[in-house]
Amino acid sequence: MENRELIKIIRNDMLKKDITDFNIANIIPTDDPNQIKISGYYGEISVVFTLNKDTGEIISKEKGKHNAVQIVESHIPVTDSISVSGTLYFELYDKYFVGGKIIDASPIKLLIDKDDSKYLTGFEIYVSDFKENTIKDVNEMATRFVNYLSLFQNQPVRHKRPRIRKFLSDGKTQNSISFDVGAVLVKVFDLDLNKSMPLLMKDSKLNQKLAHAQEGIKALTDNDFAKAISEFWIVMEDENLAMPKNYTNLRHAVNHKQINGTDAIDDLRDNFRINMKKGDYLNINDPAIQNILEKEARDMHKLVCTYLNNELSSNSYV
């Protein structure tokens, strides 16, 4: 029977118990070629069905607490009686040009484009056990990695909801996922996870700054220049960087703070060509102001990239 027919059998079984909000999560291969496992959840309950693939007979149902789904976006349920190790697959929304060396390091395996080995299309992270804490750690590592990668791109890097790719118990892989992505032209760089893995393994001040840089790049791509300035300012604040301008007052202005100080008014006029009076709020929707904010956001982006690249290099993360 086809998977959709088996899923219909499961839904009908749950409806008999007046469970109308049952959600299918994953189709799981088994060692027995005549059987298949299909997992799902409702409320705080996770259920794994084992079915006969030919007849649709429900062989068993295993219930557990629906814990991992609360942590990771992809709804990967587990039960108290099942322990599964395997790989989570993170597909990127686009493919990203690397150009230089692409080197894996445990637990991340980098996935390159099948037609052009200079492009990265996604990555896999090995999961020792699909339980709550482990999945949370893996998801955080994935977020740190795309923040790290975004520094080398001209647009934000985002991954789709992770999916279970394969299980080490039998080595079987789910159906391949098609790619429909476009190219992005960026500078050539080496992506060596042996160097960056210490950064990805745990949270840190540098990881937090990479996260704000990623948000700034995303805002810049969306033409939200006020937000971009705010995010880039967070990266640079308190670092005693040699900058052509002090962006503190501009950041306060784009955050809709009332401008009262004479020094702030003079600074915005002399350094950013923004004329304001005491008690004014900045109108970020004014086309003339938008042009000024775009220029300043792009200048700040360059400063942030230079600073973060230097930080990564000085810590041997690149």
What do these coordinates show?
The protein is α+β, with helices and mostly antiparallel strands. It has 3 domains: 3-71, Nuclear Transport Factor 2, Chain: A (Roll); 86-200, no CATH class; 205-314, no CATH class. Helix content is 37%, strand content 22%. The strands form 3 sheets. The protein has a 4-stranded antiparallel sheet with strand order 1-2-3-4, with helices on one face. Strands 7-8-5-9 form a 4-stranded antiparallel sheet, with helices on one face. Mean pLDDT is 78; it is low at 66-83 and 167-186.
Strand arrangement in the largest pleated sheet: 1-2-3-4
Show unreliable segments: 66-83, 167-186
Q: Determine the fraction of residues in helical runs and give it as a percent range.
A: 25-40%
User: What distance lies between the first and last C-alpha atoms, to the nearest angstrom?
Assistant: 50 Å
Oligomer: single chain
Mean pLDDT: 78
The tally of structural domains comes to 3
Order of helices and strands: HEEEEHEEEEHEEHHHHHH
Strand content: 15-25%
The gyration radius over C-alpha positions equals 25 Å
Tally of separate helices: 9
Topology readout:
Elements lengths: L2 H13 L7 E7 L5 E8 L2 E8 L5 E8 L2 H4 L14 E12 L1 E5 L4 E5 L6 E9 L4 H19 L12 E5 L21 E4 H8 L4 H17 L3 H12 L11 H7 L7 H11 L14 H28 L4
Parallel strand pairs: 6-10
Antiparallel strand pairs: 1-2, 2-3, 3-4, 5-8, 5-9, 7-8
Helix pairs in contact: 3-5, 5-6, 5-9, 6-7, 6-9
Task: Provide key terms for this protein.
four-stranded antiparallel sheet, Nuclear Transport Factor 2, Chain: A, alpha+beta, 3 domains, 318 residues
